[in-house]
Amino acid sequence: MKAQAITPDLKVELMKIGAFMHKKGLPSSFIAAAVETAFEFEGVYALMKMWADEKDKGEQDEIIADIQDLVDDCSQKEKIEEILF
Description:
mainly alpha; 4 helices
């Protein structure tokens, strides 16, 4: 997972994707965690863009599972760093 420099335009794009996810009925807690994580890790950002562009519901569901996995991984990484430092 690579950290990225977030630009204001990228933040707005992620917020728009988050709003689209909300419109599609995804849980707010998932959306908030995904957007927050995407602000720092380009893998989550890329998956969110893929989800927004995907038309097949089954593929979207798989992408959501991948996003959740990365959010969980990033969350674990932060907890480990807090313990170590």
